């Protein structure tokens, strides 16, 4: 009995975890198909948004996972990809 309770607590804690994978910030984070900057910078420039603004973007990748990306507007009005997260189990998605 003394080994069962810690195992149950661990199971409960792990069951509450969200099934996501975070890539996080990396200077070498490359765009993937579906990213705003995949194939180059977009043709339209974000002229009204202040430099340093955050631009969120979400899409479904070729594996069916929901992808959340974060971009930052650079001084030359280009977009820099700074963060990417994956939602691995779309069946349990809130949306």
UniProtKB/TrEMBL annotation:
The protein's name: Transmembrane protein
Keywords: Signal
Signal sequence region: 1-19
UniProt keyword annotation of Signal present: yes
